[in-house]
Design goal:
The chain is of the alpha+beta class and 841 residues long. It has 4 domains: 200 residues, no CATH class; 174 residues, no CATH class; 219 residues, no CATH class; 175 residues, no CATH class. It contains 26 helices and 22 strands. Helix 1 packs across helix 10 and helix 2 packs across helix 10.
């Protein structure tokens, strides 16, 4: 039994060569989907792998890490934990993210005890470059040991000086040697723990204690034993927990990027389907002749599937090549944060894996095969005698006229929008979007028949013939219509979602940036701060009418989730909406209630907090009762933020440090004058980052645009694919209708009239496709805005329609459809009318 017909290769190549344009469009669509998915996977895998290696390098042989807030916890905990019988060795650590002047990214500095760290993580013991000093450099108060990656990044060598910001001043550290860490991309510096506490104002505080347990000690059981001994806000975690938390931070973002890749693949599958379906309609006579000459149903099925597989294979090979190049480019120039800032400072390199590449290539081929399956099955099951008759082109599409399967699919999609997320991901929302797309596509034949049947045809031949064709052959028209529907609806949905998010972000920035000037002690890291004297100078500087100060810290509420931002700033407790984007009605404070806090939407989603609820916050190592007074919108922190009044925070935590300041200027004082005054009066003013609200807003929107760069790219791709799909659909239909054109020519219809008829058909189809696509895109956008974003990132936004953009693209599609339909009919009309009619005999 032959698996492949001997004529299959020749027939396959002949069809692909004859219609190379439509094939190229399908190949490009599949290639884009494969490239996006493969690139996202490579970037994320490289970043997570590098982060995991860095985490293991920092943990060394530690079984557990006791971690607290960034501000630290009491160092007396170290002595209590180190004496526990289950602990073989304990290493105290001071951890800071040091801001380096003239650098945007911070350098992680660890303060370690050289005598204690050796038993837990020898990789953190520096190797002195100068043998004369010996191991005394390990204890020198100004000596720092840098990892190879840090040395290369800073362009330093042993013996050079490293300048670090502390407060508004600087600290000069001598590079005394290197670190034997195993991670090639880990930027790290190590200094003596006492020197770190002294230099960075951490006296009596630790950020971490690394524990190596005795052989045979059960880690999980010891964690339960250790938990009651830990202060509030301090937890014990394994190195694997840190890797999982880092992966969870970027999971929603990279999954959404992966879904965008699937959208491109879906578009590619649909283009393959439309290309193959129209090709089958056009070639029904030829295929019937092959069946009559002895080709079996199975051979014909394999022929059509082979055509789709060839398109998928070409798209898959192109996509994996582009994906590898794209990943390498992104990792080289933008790092491994996927545009979302999840892995700052990591510069991993891409690693090719044949198995992964084959998997994504197989996905591309499978996509094309799925698109070819329905046309192939229909062609193989049709009867040759019926296929040889004229007018049979609409027969395989008649079964699509029933609206009930499509309506059931749409109803299922709408119902799934109410489903809860799965593992924090909007899985059912994605499925709902797919069902809406499929249901809308299946509704197109019925919708086209109904719309074009009720339109008045008039007495003129051109509109009469155009409407008769569209209403009489709705299945064939729906294929071209569905191409417009898919591309325009997806483009519209993404445009509506991105515009809504961007406008909501801009409105949010207007609320949270009420002052005329903003000061930040350092552009990055946590070593820059304003002392009490600095705050006094800022508040009393000439031209400053009012100054408000802010402190940002991190606290841990749930060990299974990332830390939460704690923002201490002046808040009017009776009118918090003046400084916060409050959602709903806030709770008014009552006498005797604990201090109020205002939590972000993410806190309400992840921790179930609500106004009026009383909770405890870990401050200064003890639980402090507070009252949730309201919920506010925050687009900066995906895993939650809490705002507390600055006076309450200082009273409860005894933390006097300030990291930011907001300034209102006196009447008649310009920002340039105020900035000059501050720089003259403040010591170390060169370290301060000063910005106006407009600059901060522009920077925030630039970050937004960078994060959504892939979405913008896909919008352009959707438009290009839509225009190309129109050309492919109308070209195939025009060729399939060559006998119809010949008959019209015989009865006296001119070429000009046929061209006008085709242009009108294209315009009507495009108008219907744009209208239906706008409605479908609006529905998909509602799912993205009100389901996907809250379930993925825990924030909400208001709907904003980009009418100008949508109208421009809609008019472009309609005009392109008219021109494409007219151009596509030229080839069919160029054949002799008699020869075209003879094909029916």
């Amino acid at each position: 039994m032959r698996v492949f017909h001997p004529l299959l290769p020749a027939l396959l190549m002949a069809e692909l060569r004859a219609h190379a344009g439509r094939s190229v469009v399908s190949i490009i669509a599949i290639a884009i989907g494969v490239a996006m998915g493969y690139a996202v996977h490579l970037i994320n895998h490289a970043a997570l792998t590098e982060f995991s290696q860095g985490t293991r390098a920092l943990a060394g042989q530690a079984d557990l890490e006791i971690r607290g807030p960034r501000s630290g916890f009491d160092e007396t905990l170290y002595a209590r934990v180190a004496r526990l019988p289950q602990v073989a060795a304990a290493s105290p650590v001071v951890e800071v993210d040091a801001h380096l002047p003239a650098r945007r990214e911070a350098l992680k500095l660890l303060g370690v005890d050289a005598f204690r760290v050796a038993a837990v993580n020898p990789g953190l013991i520096g190797r002195p470059a100068q043998t004369q000093a010996g191991n005394l450099d390990l204890l020198a108060p100004t000596a720092v040991f840098l990892s190879p990656a840090a040395l290369a990044w800073l362009n330093l060598r042993p013996g050079d000086m490293l300048t670090v910001q502390v407060g508004l001043g600087t600290l000069a550290l001598r590079v005394a040697g290197t670190l034997p860490v195993t991670s090639e991309a880990l930027r790290l510096g190590v200094i003596d723990i006492g020197a770190a506490q002294w230099h960075f104002g951490r006296l009596g505080l630790l950020q971490r204690i690394d524990l190596r347990l005795r052989p045979g000690v059960d880690v999980a059981a010891f964690r339960r034993t250790l938990a009651p001994l830990l202060p509030a806000g301090v937890t014990a975690a394994t190195p694997d927990d840190d890797q999982r938390t880092a992966s969870d931070l970027s999971r929603a973002y990279r999954v959404n990027l992966g879904v965008l890749a699937l959208v491109a693949l879906f578009t590619g599958a649909f283009l393959v389907f439309s290309t193959q379906a129209l090709s089958i309609i056009r070639r029904r006579t030829q295929l019937a002749l092959l069946r009559a000459l002895g080709m079996s149903r199975g051979a014909l099925l394999r022929l059509v599937l082979a055509e789709g597989a060839a398109l998928g294979l070409a798209g898959a090979l192109l996509g994996t090549t582009l994906g590898l190049a794209l990943a390498a480019m992104v990792l080289r120039y933008a790092g491994g944060d996927l545009g979302g800032g999840y892995f700052p400072g990591i510069r991993p390199s891409v690693h090719f894996n044949a198995g992964t590449a084959l998997a994504f290539a197989a996905l591309g081929v499978a996509t094309a095969l799925i698109g070819s399956l329905a046309p192939a099955w229909e062609a193989s099951r049709a009867r040759p005698a019926q296929m040889l008759k004229a007018g049979d082109e609409e027969t395989p599409l008649k079964r699509l006229r029933s609206p009930w399967p499509a309506l059931a699919i749409v109803a299922a999609g709408v119902a799934l929008t109410k489903a809860e997320p799965v593992a924090g991901l909007p899985v059912f929302a994605y499925v709902a979007v797919g069902l809406l797309l499929v249901g809308a596509i299946l509704l197109m034949p019925r919708l086209a028949h109904w719309i074009f049947s009720i339109l008045p045809r008039g007495r003129r031949s051109v509109p009469y013939l155009a409407l008769a064709q569209l209403s009489g052959a709705p299945g064939r028209a729906a294929i071209g219509l569905a191409g417009i529907l898919v591309s325009f609806s997806l483009m519209a949905a993404m445009a509506i979602m991105v515009t809504s998010f961007r406008v909501s972000l801009d409105q949010w920035l207007n609320i949270v940036l009420p002052a005329q000037l903003y000061l930040r002690a350092s552009a990055s890291g946590d070593t820059g701060y304003f002392s009490g004297a600095d705050q006094q100078i800022i508040a009393t500087a000439p031209g400053i009418a009012r100054a408000e100060f802010m402190r940002t810290n991190q606290i841990l509420l749930d060990p299974r989730l990332p830390p939460v931002a704690l923002i201490a700033k002046p808040v009017d407790k009776h009118h918090p909406a003046a400084r916060l984007a409050i959602i709903g009605m806030p709770t008014q404070p009552r006498t005797g209630d604990p201090p109020p806090i205002w939590v972000s939407e993410a806190m309400a989603d992840l921790y179930g907090m609500h106004p009026g609820q009383r909770i405890s916050l870990p401050l200064a190592g003890r639980p402090v009762p507070v009252t949730v007074a309201g919920i506010w919108r925050d687009y900066a922190r995906q895993y939650g933020a809490i705002v507390i009044d600055l006076d309450d925070y200082r009273r409860l935590s005894r933390d006097q440090r300030i990291t930011d300041a907001a300034l209102w200027l006196a009447p008649g004082v310009g920002t340039t004058q105020a900035v000059q005054s501050l720089r003259q009066r403040l010591p170390g003013a060169g370290q301060i980052e000063i910005a106006e609200p407009g600059e901060i807003r522009a920077a925030g929107l630039r970050i937004f645009d960078r994060s959504f760069a892939v979405t913008y790219l896909l919008e352009g791709v959707a438009i290009a694919i839509g225009l190309s799909g129109i050309g492919a659909s109308f070209g195939a239909q025009a060729l399939a209708r060559s006998r119809e054109f010949g008959m019209l020519r015989h009865v006296g219809v001119t070429r000009r009239q046929i061209g006008a008829m085709l242009a009108l058909e294209g315009a009507l189809l495009a108008l219907l496709g744009v209208g239906a696509g706008l409605a479908l895109g609006w529905g998909i956008a509602l799912i993205l805005i009100h389901v996907v974003n809250p379930q993925s990132f825990h924030w909400t936004m208001t709907l904003h329609m980009p009418w100008g953009l949508l109208a421009t693209i809609a008019l472009t599609l309609v005009a392109a459809a008219m021109l494409t339909a007219l151009a596509s009919g030229r080839r069919a009309m160029s054949a002799g009318a008699v020869r075209a009619v003879r094909e029916d005999w």
